[in-house]
Structures are given as C-alpha cells and as structure tokens.
Amino acid sequence: MRFYDEMQENDAALGVRPHYRRFDDWLKRQSDATMARKRAEADLVFRRVGITFAVYGADSGTERLIPFDMIPRIIPRHEWTVLEEGLRQRVKALNMFIHDVYHDRNIVRANVIPADQVYTNAQYRAEMQGVDVPLDIYAHIAGVDVVRAGDNGDFYVLEDNLRVPSGVSYMLENRKMMMRLFPELFVQNKIAPVAHYPDLLLDTLRSVAPAGVDDPTVVVMTPGMYNSAYFEHTFLAQQMGVELVEGKDLFVDDNAVFMRTTHGPRRVDVIYRRIDDDFLDPLAFRGDSALGIPGLMSVYRAGRVTLANAVGTGVADDKSIYPYVPDMIEFYLGEKPILNNVPTYQCRKRDDLAYVLDHLPELVVKEVHGAGGYGMLVGPASTRAEIENFRQRLLARPAGYIAQPTLALSACPTFVESGIAPRHIDLRPFVLSGKTVTMAQGGLTRVALQEGSLVVNSSQGGGTKDTWMIE
Hints:
This protein is of the alpha+beta class. Helix content is 30%, strand content 24%. It is globular. It has three domains: 12-210 and 305-340 and 407-470, no CATH class; 211-304, Rossmann fold; 343-405, Dna Ligase, domain 1.
C-alpha cells in the first residue's frame, strides 16, 4: 500500500519536501549518541513531571509514559490555512446541528438525517430539549481527528470529538520539550507558537458565561486522580489559573452552583467538565454517580451556569452521525465541505452491510460508540479467525457499526529501535468556539510506533510528536 510521506517527495529524485529541508539539514548533523542522550533526557523529564496516562484492562492500575518522538511533524502555512478554514467550517456546522436537534429539528424535518439516527442515539439527551445555552455554542472545545491519505496527501476528517476531547496537554508539553532539547531549531525556523492555548481556552470559557455575569468564575471539573487524563485536568487548571474541582467540592443552593473554599462558598459560573454526561448529576442521570453534583441540571437548564462542553454534544460526534456532517455543512451554511469525510458504509443499511460482509478483509470496521482504538477490526491486519469472529458480531448488531476503506495514512520519519523509519500518523487540532472560533496553530500528532500499524491511540501503544506550523 502506497502512502504519502510527510518529509520525502513522492518522486525520490526530488528528495526532501521544501518545508522539511532546513530540519533535514540539521538532523544530518546530529550524531546517534547525541540523539540517544536527548531521548533519555526527554523520558526522564516527562516521568519527573508526571506526564503519564492510566492504563485500564489487563494492566489496570499501572501508569505509562506516552512515547515521545523527537522528529516533528511539519505543516507549511499554505496547507495549514486550508486545514484551519475547513475545521472552522465543520465545527460551526456541528454546533448548529446540535442546537437544531434540541430545538427546531429542521434538519430532521427536511429528511437530511433520519430522525431515528438522532433521537434513538445513545448520546441524545432528552433533558436538553428546548434548553438555551449561551451563544448557541455546545461544543466549546472540539478535537477533530484529521488524516492525510493518497498520493497527494489530501486531508480527511476521521472523526469529531465533541464530548470531552483530550490530548491538548501533550501538544503543549511536546513543544516545551522540543524547545528544551533543541532551542537552536526555534531560532532557525519560524514555528507558530502554541503556548498561548490555555489563554485562548480561558477566554473562550469566560465568553460563554451566563448572561449578566461580567467577571465569571471558571473551574475545571475532574472525575479524580484515577482518571486516565487526570494529568491533563490538573495541567489545564494550573495553566489557566483556575481551581481544579471534583463533584464533592461543588454544591447547588438557591438555583446556583457554589464551590467550597476556605473563605466560604463561592459562586461558580462556568464549569469546564472532564466528566461524561451520565455522571454529572445523580438526580438527572445515573443515580449511583458519586462524581457529580446533585441538582446541577436544574441550574443548567435555568441558564445560571455554563457547562463546557454542553450536555448532549455526543449526539454529534457519534460515528453513526459522522457520515452526515458534509450534509450538515451544506444544509446550515450553504457551502461545500472544505475537508472531506472518509467514505463510510453504514451497516444499518442493508446494501452497505452486504458490501461490508463481502469485503471485511479490506475494511476498517468501528463501533459507533467506540473510542481509543477498541472495538474495531482492521481487516488487512487481522487473521481469518478474527475476521470471522467480527463477522458474527456484525450480523448480531449491524446498526452498532460503520465501515471505511483502509486508508494509507501518511507517514513521518520516526525514531524507532532500528533507527529512523516512516511510521503512520494522524493529527488532532483543537478548535475553540465562544464569541469567536479560534485555534492554536498546531495540534497533537499521534504516531503508530509499530511497523505497518495504523492504530495511533496511546492505549494501543502509539506515541506523540510535536506539530510545527511553519512559514
């Protein structure tokens, strides 16, 4: 399978792509011993700072470093401009869709999206029907997974993460690490900064405070230290200069949310919650949740506290809704999508299911509610027995799956045990929506470290790289 190489031209005779040439010249001057020493230094610092993620399942209770690769993924400005315009367009349409779903239902009435796809969706929250949120923004923080494929390296959106997207702390820490290890690279190259992301995030959160609140109190709400992304929760709270709280630190009184402090209760206006809908309020959702705030939804529905992201955003990032996003862009904005979707077969449709069953060895099949690289089949990398086992799961519950062609994801040179070799990558830029739509000019590049692997998730052994938007 041919793939687009981020660093090398398709025609080998042309050598390194222009935006990588200065870095390539620098890399050739570095000795193996120097790079090995720098890699060891990075591992030591990351471990000392505590940049780890919790592992669930067989190794439950263990903490791992996410492997960090020192060869950056570099994107030239003209490519970034297209990507940024496409992401702004997409997130704007997704926010309009979520508002429409919970209000006028125009897109359903127009038969653009089947009603049952929306209103029987596990992520649809009936509690949000008719609830108005500030500026009609639901997905304040969106992490959109983008891949490049084909000989020309065209961008495709792989999925939209609108509930509690994670990973931005690694984008920021990867940049800090590269600046620490190789400061000369940042003198030699015009690399767009990303360190101001926490300021952008805080400005976005403050801009969506309830009406009439001029100086809002913002908090980050975490499920607690045993959550896999707890490092990120603490990191973002510290970087924004706001309090990190758990549900037990907050309470509802007089139709408002308050935080317990050593100086007495303090009103809270905006909650950047890193906790799923189900656990937010035991009076509205799961009654056994010890993580939430009893009565929170009544305050939220009254417009006296803002939740970012809004309750019910998951209805728009479900993989069964994903195929309709280009239709949303045309329906709400009257524009053609700038970024393409990956062609997708909806197994709930009889003809699509028949095709998928006939071509399982060639396809990637995903659970519509799946995440983290779990619950999926990568046909070309699977054994006959694994394919047949997945076939039975598909036949038993076809509506629970979509399928896509196996894309030849672009590859970037990466340090592996054998030296420098190409490894497949994706990109998660973070789009912030408030009074304006903003984003840092970079993102989290994830890399599949195993040769030939297309699964970049950290839980599946993937690593990360610094992402440079370069002039």
